[in-house]
Amino acid sequence: MEYEDVLRQYLGEFGRYQKLAALLIVLVGPSVGATMFAQAFLAATPAHHCRLYQNDSSAMYGHPSESLNLSVPMENVDGTWRYSSCLMYNGTGGTSAGSNQTVRCRDGWEYDQSVYHSTVVTDYNLVCERHWLKELGQSIFMVGVSAGGLISGTTSDRFGRRPTVVACIVLQMGSGLAAAFTTDYVIFLVLRLLAGGAANGLFYVGLTLAIEVIGSSKRNVVGMTISLSWAVGTVFLGGLAYFLRDWWSLQLALAVMSAPLLSYWWLLPESPRWLLSNNRTEQAKISIQKAAKFNRVTIPDEVYEKVTKPKDKEPREKSKKYNLIDLFRGPRLRMITVTMSSVWFATVVVYYALIIGSADLAGDPYLNFVLGALLEIGLSLVGLVAMEKWGRRPVVGGFLFLSGAACLAVAATPTERQDVIRYISLLGRCAIGVAFTTLTVYSPEVFPTVVRTMGVGVANMSSRAGGILSPFVSLLADVWPPLPMLTFGILCTLGGAGVFSLPETFGIPLPDTLEDGEKLGRKQQTKIGTTDKTTEPEHNRGPVVVSGHVICDNDVFHHEEF
């Protein structure tokens, strides 16, 4: 007997126990989403110009004076004339009296404080010839996110989902608090690196735990709800940033958001599926007994004996510890791992660039950011319904194609049409957000239980390489302004095509063993838990409750891959 049978026949696929576990993981999402995109406001770059040598109150930013007009040249940016951000006249006393030649700012910069009171950029002067340090900061954060996906995946498969989630919570809060009070940019980058790794591990290990606890018919709804909680965090971030205009106060508030999650040491259950897969039968029995008591159901003793009975395996597999190499042993699982990693790479490159860049679009940065997040939530709900009807691949791939088309349209739009660019960019930002959300649900389903979080971790590690490169792709605008969006459009299109080479997982059981992973996506026969035989395609039947393993021939129906 498999754990899936226990859920269907005794515990219930979505009883009180499963609802509590899912709710606890949903509550993780807002703090993770806010941490991931905090860079949009922590390191925002306000309008600025050179500080004048004879600076006084009349020459501050936003109060042009005769001295400012004579000292700083004007430049045309996207059809608008404004004071140069990086140049000043090379005149005596900082004026143009002696020469019309321009030089780089000699005495620092004045920053517009009408939108942001202070940011990491203004405190450390990360502008002009130093602006690459800002992009480096985001790239280092993504290095942490990448490493966090791999490390947390390995530790959760080895030591359990629950201890890994709790460790990530502690690290996310601790590094966030320290980052708010540091006065050194290098230390700030190191702390943000740790926060990124913790946030990524927290979200994806938590998502894996929730999916493993619930029944197969509820995976899609729960997975999408958890993914949407990430988007809720971006809305919360925009609102919080509006009221906290100093970067350190915003960083402090984001760290404090994690404090209530420390209670998960007592509240969060371990995954019974993980315990069974790792032959921890006594702990699995205790966990299932607690779930039964919480769900107010009774499970016969013989059921515990059947579900905790060691599966028929070769002697060498009974106590095997799985590692990353197992993801590449079989041809089918190897193809899934490489393709999923490539799709994640393309998705994340565009996702972070468009979301963080939404604060730089024409108009109010807070409104643009929150509006994009709200639209993403709305479209993600549409994606949820679509995934229930058409499956994973058409939705994930379709929204990647839509985002790619929007990016290519922006690349073809004249820079003078900032209003048009704004709306098309928001469309692309929402589409890539939905693709990201649905891909988050899809990813854990294609990997077997014994290597699931490692598989998701590898895919995310590969994607974060894209996240590391993403800020520097934006610098390609210095070569040719449309080049970044053109690059993003091509990546989205290739990613969408890659999705359709992956197996469809809608309505079929989670694979548990490496052998199950090799069979996934092929024309297969699946037990549906009854003695009736049917040849009705599964996608016409909706989600089907099945046992944990794909089996053959007896009391089965034919499942068509679509």
TrEMBL record:
Subcellular location: Membrane
Segments for region (Disordered): 513-543
Stretches that traverse the bilayer: 20-44, 164-181, 187-209, 221-244, 250-268, 333-354, 366-387, 394-414
One Pfam family, short name: Sugar_tr
Residue stretches making up the Major facilitator superfamily (MFS) profile domain: 86-507
GO annotations of cellular component type: membrane
Alphabetically ordered keywords of this record: Membrane, Transmembrane, Transmembrane helix
Domain of life: Eukaryota
InterPro entries, per the entry: MFS_dom, MFS_sugar_transport-like, MFS_trans_sf, Sugar_transporter_CS
Membrane topology listed for this record: Multi-pass membrane protein
GO molecular function annotations of the record: transmembrane transporter activity
Protein name per UniProt: Organic cation transporter protein-like isoform X1
Gene: LOC118420921
